[in-house]
Amino acid sequence: MGLEFLGRVRRTTLWVVAVVALLTATYAAPQQALAVALGAGWSLVNLALLERLIVALTGTERGSRSAVRRVAGALLGLLLLFAAGAFLLGRLPIAALMSGFIVPYAVLVLKAATLLLLPSGLWRRLTRDARLATLAVTLVVGAAWLAFSPLRSQSDPQVREPVATTAPGAHEDAVAHEPHAAESTGPEKFPNVITVLHRAFPNAAWAEFLHHYEVIVFALLVAFLLGLVARLATRNARLVPSGLQNLVEALVEGLNDFITGILGERHAARYVPFLGTLFIYIWAMNLFGLIPFMDSPTSNLNVTVALALTVFVYAQYIGLRGLGIVGYVDHLMGSPRNVTGWLLVPLMLPIHVLGELAKPISLSCRLFGNIFGEDMLLVAFVSLGVTTLSFTHLPFGLPLQLPFLLLALLTSTLQALVFTVLSTIYFLLMLPHDDHATGHKAGEASLEHSPI
Amino acid sequence: MNFQAALALGLPLGIGIAAIGSGIGLGLIGQGAMQAIGRQPEATAKIQLAMIIVAALAEALTIYAFVTMFLLSGKIQ
User: Fold this and answer.
1) How far apart are CA B72 and CA B68, in angstroms?
2) Measuring CA to CA, which residue among A319, A310, A308 is closest to residue A267?
3) Residue contact B59–A365, C-beta within 8 A
4) Is the CB of A365 less than 8 angstroms away from the CB of B63?
5) Is there a contact between B77 and B4 (Cβ–Cβ < 8 Å)?
């Protein structure tokens, strides 16, 4: 633990404070964020000055002239710093200033604790076994959950209080209508497990939590199921596959061939895992909505925007890394090589930038619109089937939605494929252009300027 | 006419017009692809890939109209 440790603490603190200040500015007030940032900055300068002072007093050249000068400088700086601190304490919210002030010390303590913990035998034993490590992580998360739940339940009644003070009948009414008021006022989808649970336990905090994060719960469930299938299929892999392994291998091989056909041999190996995962994940999420009491996470705009943003950021990263900053800007300017090219730059640059920005929007809206529309279509035909037989007072209706279930199977697969193919092409457009097969060149040229 | 009535009349109409446009587009794409496959059956895979991409582009326009309808339909109350 030398001086470079302090340097690392300083860097980490800067990042942490930047994130915390941004979060505070978003969710609280900009003034609070400023106070946090200034408090942390004050604390960092304080630490740096103290470090200078101590190095000058105890270092190898103590007593020399320059060391004395440095001590005097550090002392003067400390004096000025304390004056600035007093000034800040008078002007800005003290709680935010203090929390900013504590950040470097918290980072210091946590870093020292990890330095002590990591080489210890206990930690090594814990991380050697995957199951043990998972258990430990689960325990820690559960403990944090329990520790923070009193805080949550304290904040919850304050929100609910106005409802609770009204008459009992009105209370139930308000609870029943709450989800409608909170969500977007669109036509309602099929009930799924979580909405059923939420109706059954309208006041339970966990049901509220599940309902609020319904999409994430389903998305994680799909991811977990896919992980389980992958694990089962590869548990005892054989050279001649059979059963589940055969199925999964066929899928992976088909995707590999398909994406390699677009990207070319040279780049494919790097991007096939990402793009293939994208296809399988989206496909599974689309199909998940067809299971009774389940819901497609992709019929929510948040999920599709998240997926599209991932693709967008990855594509820009590929462009920046492959072409360099100059090459990337050149690419955005339409690669001007002659006078006409340079004259067209003011026109081409905004077109290309807007085209890049339109890509995630169109990707996410397309997937969301298709899957959501498919759900709505099914809902419409189910309610039609129920209303046709309603005069008989039977507890079932005509299964009018059956042909559309087949259509839903088709669109689910097709939209996952389209998302993957378009992502692949965005990647292709960002990759270095020189050595593709001629067949792709033609396709590229026609796709390059289209507002996909 | 208040704006709710205008929305209730205009939104389905907008979707319909968008669907006509992308329907014509999809028809042309399908026609072109089928002809191309008929002339050169060995290039089926490549043609199908391009067809799916372009079909997604044409279809997206209707989807945008649909999303817009969904966003605005909440205001008809």
Assistant:
1) 6
2) A319
3) no
4) yes
5) yes
Distance CA A288, CA A225 (A): 11
- Give yes or no for B56 touching A (CB within 8 A): yes
Question: Cα–Cα distance between A40 and A14 in angstroms, integer?
Answer: 8
Residues of B within 8 A of A362 (CB-CB) are 60
Q: What is the 3-state secondary structure (H, E, C) of A3-31?
A: HHHHHHHHHHHHHHHHHHHHHHHHHCCHH
| Cβ–Cβ under 8 Å, residues B57 and A450 | yes
Domain residue limits, chain A: 3-119, 123-165, 224-448
pLDDT by residue for chain A (452 residues), tens digit each?
577 888 888 888 888 888 888 888 888 888 888 888 888 888 888 888 888 888 888 877 777 788 888 888 888 888 888 888 888 888 888 888 888 888 888 888 888 888 888 888 888 887 787 888 888 888 998 898 888 776 655 554 444 444 444 444 444 444 444 444 334 444 577 788 888 888 888 888 888 888 888 899 999 999 999 999 988 888 877 877 778 888 899 999 999 998 998 888 888 889 999 999 999 999 999 999 888 888 899 998 899 999 999 999 999 999 898 888 888 888 888 888 888 888 888 888 888 898 889 889 889 988 998 898 888 888 888 888 888 887 777 777 788 888 889 988 988 998 999 999 999 989 988 887 654 444 444 444 444 444 44
Q: A189, A257, A362: best mutation site toward chain B, by most B Cβ within 10 Å?
A: A362
- The CA distance from A43 to A49, in Å, is 10
Show the tokens assigned to A271: 């991007």
Task: List the alpha helices (DSSP H) in A264-344.
Answer: 265-288, 301-332, 339-343
Whose tokens are 């339909």? That residue is: B73
Q: Which residues of A touch B77 (CB under 8 A)?
A: 185
| Model pLDDT, residue A152 | 57
- The residues, any chain, with a CB within 8 Å of residue A372's CB and separated by 6 or more, are A299, A300, B70
From the number of C-beta atoms within 10 Å of its C-beta (0-12, 13-18, 19+), residue A425 rates as: buried
CATH number, domain B11-71: 1.20.20.10
Angle subtended by helix axes A193-200 and A214-233, to nearest 10: 130
> Chain A contact for B50, CB < 8 A?
yes
Closest chain B CA to residue A181: B74
> What are the residue boundaries of the structural domains of chain B, listed by start?
11-71
Answer whether B74 sits within 8 Å of A184, measured CB to CB. Answer: yes
Do A49 and A110 meet the contact criterion of CB atoms below 8 Å apart? Answer: no
B1–chain A nearest CA distance, Å: 23
- Only one residue has tokens 């004259």, namely A343
Of A160, A151, A155, the closest CA to residue A178 belongs to A160
The pTM for the full model equals 0.63
**What is the rounded CA–CA span in Å between residue A34 and residue A23?**
11
